[in-house]
Amino acid sequence: MKPTTSDADENSPDLLLFRYVEGDLDAAQVQELEARLASDAALRDELAFWKESFAEPEAYDTAHLEKSLLVPVEPRWTGSYFGTWIFILTLTVTLFRPVPVAMETRPVLIPAPVSTPAVADVVTEARNPEEAITRSRMTRITLPFREKRLPETIEVERNVNESIIPAPIPGIKSRPPEVLSPVAQLPLTGIKVQKVKPKPKPIAVARTLSRRQGRAIMRMKEKARQQRKADQFLKGNVPYVVPLNSENF
Amino acid sequence: MNHSIIRYGSVLFALFLTVSGYSQTLPLGALPMQYNPAFAGEAGSPRFSSNFGLNAIGSIRDNSYAFNTSYDQFIPAIRSGIGFSGGFYSTSSNRFFSSSGYSFALAVAPKFSLKGKYTVSPSLDLSYGANDQISKTLPNTNSTIRQVNGYDLQSRAGLLVNTRKWYIGYSVEIPLRNAYRFRGFDGLVIPPSSDTTLTSTKKFNSYWQFGYTFQRSSESKFSFTPQVVFRTGWDPSLRFGRNNGFRYLSLVAINLNFRYQKFIWGINNTGIHLGWQTDKVRVMLSNGFGYNGRESGYIGNATFRYMLKQNDR
Questions:
Q1: pTM score
Q2: Composition of chain B by helix, strand, coil, percent to 5
Q3: Does the structure's ipTM exceed the value 0.90?
């Protein structure tokens, strides 16, 4: 039986380093360990190893679930303008085409085993002997016509307290088995998944302009503004003369 | 129809109001055609301008007042601007001397637009002015009173180049007729005589006028607009030795105008001004001190301008 963390020595260097890398130590322990790291080169090497061999296990392997349960989505069609209309037309025809509804029930008549009618039946259905024979030979049943409906919710059961032992990841340097300390062989319970919040990418990077650049931009804007007014003059949208600015003169 | 009535009514109003010959100093810009007739129609819209000035100088209240007005507009059919201006003045409170007069002028200024950015406008105007100068009875004497009637007929040729932001103007006075008539003699100082007419001298007067707007962009709230007028001329009647005449260059008028949104303030040749100005309306008051050679006093001017913009018609 493998030892658990509760049974291990809390002051073991390997366990401390492991918890340090995991971020499970409290502030006092961190301070103490960092003091030791500052003076102990071997401990720093050990810490480097722990940092190097740190790996994030996947919490769930949902790939096969997604593949089996989710409906694959067609890649977004991006075509030309004409192609877009073709796509919309096709989509419209497809949507309004009569499609059998899922879970539709239809009455199906299945011939029942042939049996000799009793004399009493013949007597009671004497008005229409043929109908009586037919009704006696048919049985009305209901069968599911098509059943491919996906479940709305999927429940996956998992024991939270079960131990997860990370498998060695190829490509990561690991220590030979004979050198592993007992603490390293401890089962890891409740592996914490590190969540790194991605920084939002800025939409537009603000530039800091110098005063000279600002004045140059302002001059360009003013020049464009005057050009627009000049164009209006040439188009005859305003009187023929270019007046002085009556707000200033 | 109604707009036409207003337009031509304003023209007639300006024509019949016509009056004065700018005998009194006006704030630069109060009347657009004061120094250069090429400003007629420059705004592209009908424009009515007026100014009322009052001088109160000295202990004896050497008062004078003047009212000047002008109207100009651009006529697209002939691509020219026309303008009427006029005014009257009166200096009457002095015990020894009084004078009054009026004048009016008509200007035509064809417009040529270059690339939609520049306007080049030559111009020509014709003006007529008349004035009466009366010397009153001197105290404790039998003296002499003389009355001088003068009239002045002249023309001006001008050129204006402008954008929305700046302008350069030049105009030349062309004297056609300048005469004085003496009459109404009484007393001993001046012997009786028949009416005398003096023909004009061959003076040459020209005006340079500049204006520029300092503004970060055409939509900025703040702007600074300096305007200046220089006069340069030649008077052959003033000879010194072998000189052909007296040449001169002088600063005639100035206007340093600041504007923030619709408020304007600054300094002009009549004093400090303060006012409110939009692209249609300007109301401005100028206050300053004047000096008549002996005493100083108050000079005040009230300026009003209204433009009938395109979107109003």
A1: 0.55
A2: 5, 60, 35
A3: no
